[in-house]
Amino acid sequence: MDKAKKYVDKPIKVAAATYATNKFNEAAPFMPLLYFAGGQMEERHTDIRNAVENAYKQAGLGPEDLDLIELQDTCSSNELIYSEVILRLQEGEADRLLEKGATALGGEIPINVSGGSSSFGEAISAQGFLQIYELVQQLRGQAGERQVKDARIGLAQQHGGHGYASAIILEKV
Questions:
Q1: For the chain, what is the largest distance between any 2 Cα atoms, rounded to a whole number of angstroms?
Q2: Can you give the residue ranges of every domain in the chain?
């Protein structure tokens, strides 16, 4: 942090950075089991769950510590599905959070206050960088009209169509 403070007034700590994949199907090695087996959310999103849970472990934090989340919402349903995984919710609980405004700016756990991936198109590799940029702006208190009050810890999550995911937790120091 001392070195970072030489370059920036408000350094941000990378508390965790993780990557995970699903189990792959031997019959079709390029496609994860989720595309063949169906099943419950726990089976279909093990890549996201593993990336996020490993990030929590690495950072010594849990979902209750997050002040905001930037997650991949290239499909409208992803915000609901992925927030349930990230926040350790039961299936259907994200719908209720959304309905009561908990995920909006000013809510209990703001999600995608940047507008999310849906607001700028599926920019593939750039999505993760945009999420990290948003978290840094938020944690530095420089997000303008999108500013989450007193933001200290944020999580960015990405998911790929072939069963891989990443999670990054940034923390204000």
A1: 53
A2: 12-172
160 DSSP β-pair partners: 164
pLDDT of 27-77, one tens digit each?
Answer: 545 555 444 444 444 456 788 889 999 999 999 999 999 999 999 888 878
Residue closest to 172 by CA, chosen among 35, 62, 10, 18: 10
For residues 8-23, one letter each, b for 16 or more C-beta atoms within 10 angstroms of the residue's C-beta and e for the rest, the string is eeebbeebbbbebebe
- Residue 140 carries which side chain, given as an amino acid letter? R
Structure tokens at 173: 């120091």
What gap in Å lies between CA 123 and CA 3, rounded to an integer? 32
CATH entry, 12-172, from 3.40.50.2000, 2.40.50.140, 1.20.1250.20, 3.40.47.10:
3.40.47.10
Q: Which residues pair with 24 in a beta bridge?
A: 32
With vertex at residue 109, the alpha carbon angle to CA 143 and CA 124, rounded to the nearest 5 degrees, is 65
